[in-house]
Design goal:
Structural class: alpha/beta
Low-confidence stretches: 1-17
Mean pLDDT: 92
Radius of gyration: 33 Å
Helix content: 25-40%
Distance between the termini: 57 Å
Number of helices: 33
Strand order of the largest sheet: 12-9-13-14-16-15
Shape: globular
Largest sheet: 6 strands, parallel
Number of strands: 22
Strand content: 5-15%
């Protein structure tokens, strides 16, 4: 805090205008605190103060508020500033070149015939925030500790490209390819931080608001996890997340602050660029976003450092003996602060300082230009260096730096602080000339007048002392950032014998596919080389998925260990936490679980350690609730297994609409990085998991993640058939049960039934009904992946369309059904859109059945009869197809519907009515 004789009207949330009846005694208390700090250190003083506050709150009449808000001034006083270690003139020159080149990247992207947009103003407000870190704090991947991880603000990407241009990592041609990834290939640059699109440059996708802060928290948490488990020492790595004050409106931006505080993530720093503006206007026009954020973060247990005012304000604050200036700062609204910087010094004199005669007197001898030169703290490199240094030295808590800036800073009066500045993407000739003059860039009027849309970039070349300084700073800090590397040790492949257990089936015991997967995982965890690389992730439903059996063995990760006796400590499956625990148990927290999955699934790149995250969840709460997180995981090229447990519309009896998933394969299909499967049996799961490990971690090294839907309906898991079509299981379909002609004529009518997941037993039931009651012979196919069949077919069509000279490959589904006689009926426990994905590639007549609409609470058989996806419904639909083709009498379908009482939900019997839901 900046010292002054009298505090403002609100300090730390406490009323401080109460009369001090004994100032001498008060001073003695303050001096006692000072002596304690000197003698016993800051931590001891902090403990005593917090204990005093805790004790004070026990006296109800004292009414002591929480420590959540401080005055609207810098947290660290001028007298406590750290000496700036850099060459200030050199760094000022670098910042000017960066400002120019970043703005020209966007300006040139607006040239006629291109017009792809971009954001000029975000980086303009944040140059100093980034450059202090680049030159003095952020360690590159070659640093001894492994380097830091930086989550750059998405809209500031032109600045990162501009720096890479000065560093020699990007060319002017590549800058001209900004937002033209295909038309300017191979020199195109993505609009924002997209690792998948620029895989050697960006590490973390951040432009979907809220994803950056969420993933940064879990990246920092995961770094501690790796250290505590002994997988890799990440103790000298720091995570920095750059955010906007408007972005903090997103629930994800604030929703994980308690996670960072609870885990004492002192390896995490948020830097929030408080330019007071959203995309359309002020963040809090009638309030103060910095104060609001301070209260939020302090209340969540974070260390808060406010950098509001630049050095020019220091003498004014030092002279503010009666607190008039601080009082004015406290009570001025953000909407007014924004307006001040859209005007001039005279306006600030009248409308800010002029609100109080005492503050107006402070600047009576100042010129309007001097007043206008007063900067906000985020543009002051000395203030930012001090804040970053304090953040990195803080122990036991994460830190947020709230840095006040001006959006569009240095771009001119048409841009700075304007409501429309976020959407402004180009500068006039006069704007360019004034901007050039402020930055002292050696570009002539003629160059700007010839074509304002082609105003040149500026790079003085590798011999320039500013460039040499810039490069030396990065060398000393361990290399360039951002930079993404993928060199890592190979993942030990588990022995083939560990995949064999579930292939033997379950005998007479009924086992759901969820339990079958857990059994496979247990077998894989017996492989001593492979097991340490597995990261199980469970959002507080371990017992639902049968994974509580892992608690006493590999234990739940808790950075503090287990400092209590669990209530079930005498049980074999007792709840066990440990500092080196392997399970990430994220609580009731699907979004955080996806963030943890992303951190683990990209460890091969961020840490050079290949890990296999296995995240299991209620399938309804996966791609529906956290689809944006999975999209970011795909962008970041995460690998691993995602398990949609309690899958299907009708298997979760009694739970109702919110829990019953009838569409997650559709949502998963929209993510190009997701390979989706809907297996019916345990042996299918075994082959799919083995294939996934090969594709993701084998020589192919594919940047995909595998999504398996697994069910909670107990069935007898069959033994793997001899000579099973393993290739078909992996590619998406195989012939499970050929129809038998035993007991029927050889000219019996034929049909094909395609089913996936829990619907396969109903298809087999329909196969029996058709033969027994109508003499129809049907083949049953297990479709393990409708999505993969569709992708294969689309690839074949694209090849035929774009490369007809290479021949026309037949899609896999078409080839498998080419000689299969009769109509095809497809059924799943999902909406019809899932099997309809392959309709256009199925030869002959095709019909689908599915659970369209909202789910509801009922028994499994009743729900299946209601949706008409049970065995009898499949049989009737097959008969309708045959009747439409004239192969059987027209009245057979109606006769069958009446025989099976098809419209009576209470007549349904398909599937297991019992079993835990």
């Amino acid at each position: 805090m900046i010292p002054r004789e009298e505090p403002g009207p609100v300090l730390n949330g406490l009323p401080t205008t109460l009369p001090d009846t004994d100032p001498e005694e008060t001073q003695e208390w303050l001096e006692s605190l000072d002596r304690m700090v000197e003698a016993d250190g800051e931590n001891r003083a902090r403990v005593v103060l917090l204990k005093l506050l805790e004790h004070a709150r026990s006296h109800g009449k004292l009414d002591v508020s929480a420590l959540t808000s401080t005055d609207y001034i810098n947290t660290i006083s001028a007298v406590d500033e750290a000496p700036y270690p850099g060459d200030e003139a050199m760094e000022r020159g670098i910042r000017r070149m960066l400002r120019w080149n970043a703005a020209m990247t966007v300006q040139r992207a607006q040239r006629p015939g291109i017009g792809v947009g971009g954001h000029i103003s975000t980086y303009a407000s944040a140059v100093t925030l980034y450059e202090v870190g680049m030159n003095h704090f952020w360690r590159g991947p070659d640093a001894p500790g492994g380097g830091d991880q930086i989550f750059y603000q998405g809209h500031a990407s032109p600045g990162m490209y501009a720096r890479a241009f000065l560093e020699g990592r990007l060319s002017a041609t590549e800058l001209d390819g900004f937002r033209q990834e295909k038309s300017a290939a191979p020199d195109g640059l993505p609009s924002y931080p997209h690792p998948r699109m620029l895989p050697k440059f960006w590490q973390f996708p951040t432009v979907s608001m809220g994803i950056g802060p969420m993933n940064a928290v879990y990246q920092a948490s995961f770094n501690k996890y790796l250290t505590n488990r002994g997988v890799k020492d990440c103790s000298d790595q720091h995570v920095w997340a750059f955010l906007g004050d408007g972005e903090m409106d997103e629930p994800e931006s604030r929703g994980f602050l308690q996670v960072a505080a609870n885990e004492e993530l002192d390896n995490l720093t948020f830097v929030i660029n408080c330019n007071l503006q959203r995309l359309d206007g002020p963040v809090r026009g009638n309030g103060k976003i910095v104060q609001e954020l301070e209260s939020t973060f302090r209340g969540a247990g974070w260390n808060v450092i406010k950098v509001i005012w630049g050095s020019g304000w220091d003498p004014l604050l030092d002279a503010d003996k009666d607190g008039a200036l601080v009082d004015l700062m406290n009570n001025t609204r953000d909407g007014d602060y924004q307006t001040f910087k859209a005007n001039d010094g005279g306006y600030v004199r009248r409308e800010f300082f002029g609100r109080d005669p005492r503050t107006l007197g402070m600047v009576e001898n100042w010129t309007d230009d001097q007043i206008w030169a007063l900067r906000r703290g985020g543009h002051d490199y000395r203030k930012m260096y001090t804040a970053y240094k304090a953040a990195t030295e803080t122990k036991g808590a994460p830190t947020v730096v709230l840095a006040c800036t001006i959006k569009g800073y240095d771009l001119g009066s048409h841009f700075a602080g304007r409501n429309a500045t976020h959407q402004m993407k180009k500068m006039t000739v006069d704007d360019l000339k004034a901007f050039r003059d402020r930055l002292d860039i050696p570009v002539t009027d003629a160059q700007l007048e010839e074509n304002p849309y082609l105003a040149p970039y500026y790079n003085p070349g590798p011999e320039d002392e500013r460039i040499q300084y810039l490069l030396e700073r990065r060398r000393s800090l361990g290399g360039f950032t951002p930079e993404r590397r993928t060199t890592h040790k190979p993942l030990p492949k588990p022995s083939a014998k560990h995949f064999d257990g579930v292939k033997r089936g379950s005998g007479k015991q009924e086992v759901a596919t969820t339990m079958a997967f857990v059994r496979l995982l247990k077998d894989l965890m017996r492989d001593k080389d492979f097991a340490p690389h597995v990261v199980p992730i469970i959002p507080d439903e371990a017992r639902t998925f049968g994974m509580d059996s892992f608690f006493p063995t590999i234990k739940i990760y808790n950075p503090h260990g287990q400092n209590y006796t669990p209530v079930d400590h005498e049980l074999m499956l007792s709840y066990r936490e440990a500092k080196n625990g392997q399970i990430l148990h994220t609580g009731i927290n699907e979004a955080g679980s996806v963030a943890a999955f992303t951190a683990a699934g990209t460890a091969y790149a961020t840490h050079g350690v290949p890990l296999v995250p296995i995240y299991i969840f209620y399938s309804m709460f996966g791609f529906q609730r956290t689809g944006d997180g999975f999209w970011a995981a795909g962008d970041q090229m995460a690998k691993g297994f995602v398990l949609g447990g309690t899958a299907g519309r009708t298997t979760l009896t009694g739970e109702g609409t919110q829990h019953m998933d009838g569409h997650s394969p559709v949502l998963a299909a929209t993510n190009p990085a997701v390979v989706s499967y809907d297996p019916a049996y345990s042996y299918e799961i075994s082959h799919i998991v083995e294939s996934g490990l090969d594709r993701m971690y084998g020589p192919a090294d594919e940047n995909v993640m595998f999504y398996l839907t697994v069910y909670n309906e107990p069935i007898v898991q069959p033994k793997e058939p001899e000579g099973v079509d393993a290739e078909g299981i992996v590619k998406g379909m195989y012939l499970l049960a050929p129809g038998s002609f035993e007991g029927v004529n050889q000219d019996a009518r034929r049909a094909q039934i395609l089913a996936s997941g829990v619907a396969v037993p109903w298809a087999l039931e329909a196969q029996g009904l058709l033969k027994r009651d109508f003499g129809v012979v049907a083949d049953v196919w297990s479709v393990t992946s409708w999505n993969e069949l569709r992708r294969d077919a689309m690839d074949a069509d694209e090849q035929a369309f774009l490369h007809p000279d290479q021949g026309h490959r037949t899609p896999y589904v078409t080839a498998r059904l080419a000689d299969a006689p009769g109509p095809v009926v497809a059924v799943t426990d999902y909406m019809r859109q899932v099997p309809d994905q392959i309709a256009q590639w199925v030869p002959g007549d095709y019909a689908s059945l599915g659970a369209d609409g909202f789910g509801f609470s009922d028994t499994r058989p009743a729900a299946r009869r209601f949706f008409h996806i049970d065995g009898p419904s499949i049989a009737v639909r097959t008969l309708q197809q045959l009747a439409d083709n004239g192969e059987i009498p027209e009245d057979w379908p109606l006769r069958a519907a009446q025989q099976y009482d098809l419209l009576n939900v209470n007549a349904g019997t398909s599937g297991n009515a019992g079993g835990e839901s």
